[in-house]
């Protein structure tokens, strides 16, 4: 029993904390999690207490939780560092890309204080109901970062925008996970019906005889 | 005639309905924005220097009255009070409140050379101090050297100041296990 408990303890993985951006539909607000004590809309739980030489990855899920009648286009743009965070964040490198394609170039690759390639809206994708875009944010803290930047807090703002469109007939059907085999079950039902009819006819004939 | 007008009205209405239908397919229903304020915080290195007696009590801030030859119990340890491991070094500075006197050689310390290594004026802790850990003592007793502290020191105050520096051990390799080879030691 003790061995089992020990094994269980060792098998527990260290879970990376994920940020999520959820659009609930009907022009409602975005929901940002997990937030932090510094900001309720903070998407960077992995970028706390960083040290010189650190290279950290923050995964962010952008979800469409709107109804099935609409598809959405989700956009992102960076507003840069807040005024009192410029100096600190200008020391750090930040990269952003969608995680679905590792060969894709970073859509943002600059100092964390800048807006750079995300100065204008960049479309993250068209999402159907339940659809997700995975973002990967990479933070690079130079090993040369001086003592004057220890214990600092930096704020950087991101804007998300959504546009809803009606789902059209020629839109691809998103995978639903439903593996129901309709032709097979129709054939089985038809076969069962024929067998029942045959049994009924045979019974009537026997009764008549 | 009347029938022709009715047909035209129906035709126009149908075209209008069809145009409205297709127009809906190209316009967005809704658009909305939301702002996320993301936060990056940097860590810091923090420690506390503990000075205790062999009774386990805190060494008195006002000091202790001494006479030549006394051996004073003063155990110095350092505790890592942050969330990061670090390398550590300690320096002992002597002083006396009289310009004509020198405090050098007035004290003799029993340095813990098992865990501390002397290099260019500093005692370097030989390992990495992990979060929540406290070092073994740097020294535990101070002897007042009788040959040096003569009558000219009567009524004077001798001081012994311990100062410490720490530098992060993450992403900071050392050579041959010598912690003084780490990068980032602050300038004195």
Q: Main beta sheet of chain A, described?
A: 6 strands, mixed
The percent range for strand residues of chain A is 25-35%
What is the helical fraction of chain A, as a range of percent? 10-25%
| Number of helices, where a helix is a run of at least 4 consecutive DSSP H or I residues of chain B | 1
Return the CATH topology of the largest domain in chain A. Answer: Immunoglobulin-like
Count of helical regions of chain A: 3
Strand content of chain B: 35-45%
The helix-and-strand class of chain A reads alpha+beta
Largest interface: A-B, 55 and 29 residues
Largest sheet of chain B: 4 strands, antiparallel
- Global morphology of chain B: rod-shaped
The secondary-structure element order of chain B is HEEEEEEEEEE
For this structure, what is the CATH class of the largest domain in chain A? Mainly Beta
Order of helices and strands of chain A: HEEEEHEEEEEH
CATH topology of chain B: Immunoglobulin-like
Strand order of the largest sheet of chain B: 7-8-5-10
Order of strands across the widest beta sheet of chain A?
Answer: 2-1-3-8-5-6
Which bin fits the share of residues in helices of chain B?
Answer: 10-25%
Essential attributes:
heterodimer; A: 209 residues; alpha+beta; Immunoglobulin-like; six-stranded mixed sheet; three-stranded antiparallel sheet; B: 188 residues; mainly beta; four-stranded antiparallel sheet; 1 helix; 10 strands; 12% helix
How would you portray this structure in words?
The complex is a heterodimer of chains A (209) and B (188). Chain A is of the alpha+beta class and 209 residues long. Chain A folds into 2 domains: 12-166, Immunoglobulin-like (Sandwich), CATH 2.60.40; 181-209. In chain A, 20% of the residues lie in helices and 33% in strands. The longest helix of chain A is centred in the C-terminal third of the chain and has 27 residues, at 182-208. The radius of gyration of chain A is 27 Å and the shape is elongated. By secondary structure, chain B is mainly β. Chain B has one domain (47-181): Immunoglobulin-like. Chain B has one helix spanning 2-24; strands at residues 31-41, 47-52, 71-73, 75-80, 86-96, 107-111, 116-119, 122-125, 139-144, 158-168. In chain B, the strands form 3 sheets. Chain B has a 4-stranded antiparallel sheet with strand order 7-8-5-10, with no helix packed on it. The longest helix of chain B has 23 residues, at 2-24. Chain B starts with a helix and ends in a 20-residue tail after the last strand. The mean pLDDT of chain B is 89. Chain A binds chain B through residues 21, 23, 26-30, 32, 36, 38-39, 41-44, 47-54, 70, 73, 79, 82, 88-89, 92, 112, 139, 141, 143, 145, 147, 149-166, 168, and chain B through 24-25, 28-45, 83-84, 168, 170-172, 183-184, 186.
